[in-house]
Structures are given as C-alpha cells and as structure tokens.
Amino acid sequence: MPTYRDEGVVLRTHKLGEADRIVTLLSRQHGKVRAVAKGVRRTASRFGARLEPGMVVDAQFYVGRSLDIVQQADTIGSYGADIADDYGRYTVAMAMLETADRLTDHEAGTQHYLLLVGALRSLARREHDAGMTLDAYLLRALSIAGWAPSFVDCAVTGAPGPHSAFVAQLGGVVADAVAPPGAVRLDAATLEVLGALLAGDWPVAESADERALAQATGVVAAYTQFHLERALRSLPHVDRSGV
Question: How far is CA 58 from CA 3, 29, 34, 141, in A?
C-alpha cells in the first residue's frame, strides 16, 4: 500500500466506531487530507492527543480508497494544547480552523498552511491581542483565496483613494460615483486599522483606539461572511473580552 508523509494542522475530528476517529488536516503539500486514526480514542493510544484540533504534526499516511489512514504522527507544534486552557484564545482558534476548513480543498497551496500555522503560533505565544490576530488572519486568508479587499483605492474603478464607502459585495472601499445608496462609511482611523491588519503592520494596528478596532472587526466579519456565503458557526462564540 503506498504511503506519503507531510506536515499538517488538525482542523477537526469526528468519531468513527468505538475507538477510531476521522481527522481532517490542512497539510503543507497535499492540501486538505481526511484520514482515519485507528484506536486514538483508547487511553493507551500512542498519538491520540497529537491529533486534536489546532495541533501541528508531521504524519505518515497510508493511501486508502476513500479515506487515508494515519500510520504515525509526531508533534511539531502543540498549539491546540497551549491554547485550550484560555477560553478567549480557544474560541479564536476554532474560528481560524473553521475558516481554513471552509476555504481550502485538496488543491490548496502551502500559503494557507503557513498562514494558519503562523496565526496559531502567534495566538499560543500571546504575541498580539487574540481578536486582532483573528481579524488579521481572516483578511489574509481571504486574500490568498482570491478575495483581497481594497482599503485605499476604489475596488471597482481603481480610482486612487482614500475612499470612505465600504461595500463587501464590491470588494472593499469604492468611490462615491459607484457607491450604492446606504453604503457603510468608514473613517480614516478604521481604514488605517484594516490596512494594517491586512499588511501585518502590528505597531499601527495596536496603536488604534477601541472604537476604530471595534468598527474594523465588524467590517472583517461582514466581509468574511459574504465571501464564505454563510456565517462561520464559531464566530459568534468568539470571546473578545480580555484577550
């Protein structure tokens, strides 16, 4: 039976039978992988704890007919375990994993994998505010998927900005000439935060006031929901208090 080895982030798991589990991973080289981990729900399992959501592993797989089989898994990053004891960061991690699951498939490139691993690592190490880490991840993940938002120039005509009208359906800020009636208007501070989160400019993002950050979060949620075509189940549960 042919085998292959790859790094992967565990996105979600499902019970299978009495002792097995179906594990969905976002891998570095093979896109999304669904595989059976046999016996991992037994207390004597060799690698059950390594195959929990948020864990990053170096795994070997047997190629199966419909599902592959996990033969071996070694921990690269125990981010899921490091995050699990902090409810606020745990909810953020679940939103990231769900987003990655929704945006990727078997042909997913390494960019999605590297972005997710970096975001989980940052979250586990508490490098930045958890809510801001989530917003930055969502904007970048959507950009990799081909839906990069514009926060300066008009997303429709390309007219140089700044522009204040934001329309998720049109790809970001738009010039007044093409802005539909009732379009949301964003002030300069909010647009600066959004641009900083997209670019990973943390000094600028972290210097913003709470009002601009709150408005930016709403914009990110609306943009994400539109492009994913339905809301993330985990997003309403994200606890942004004190994280």
Answer: 13, 12, 15, 23
The DSSP 8-state label assigned to residue 128 in this structure reads S
Which residue in this structure is represented by tokens 């039978």?
A: 17
Q: Could you tell me if 140 and 96 are in contact, meaning their C-beta atoms sit under 8 angstroms apart?
A: no
Cα-based angle 109, 114, 120 (whole degrees, multiple of 5): 135
How does DSSP assign 95-123, residue by residue? HHHHHHHHH--TT--HHHHHHHHHHHHHH
SS3 state at 6: strand
Which residues make beta-bridge pairs with 185? 165
**How far is it, in rounded angstroms, from Cα 31 to Cα 9?**
11
CA–CA gap between residue 235 and residue 99 (Å, rounded): 10
b/e string for 132-170 if b means 16 or more Cβ within 10 A?
bbbbbbbbbbbebbebebbbebbbbeeeebebbbbbbeb
Of 219, 220, 192, 223, nearest in space to 208 by CA: 192
- At 23-66, the pLDDT tens digits run 999 999 999 999 999 887 776 666 777 888 999 999 999 998 88
Helix 130-144 to helix 188-199 angle, to the nearest 10 degrees? 70
Q: Is 90 exceeded by the pLDDT of residue 134?
A: yes
Rounded to two decimals, the pTM is 0.92
CA dist 101 and 9 (Å) reads 10
Chain centre distance of CA 221 = 12
CA-nearest of 66, 125, 128, 130 to 96 is 130
User: Which one has a higher pLDDT value, 239 or 179?
Assistant: 179
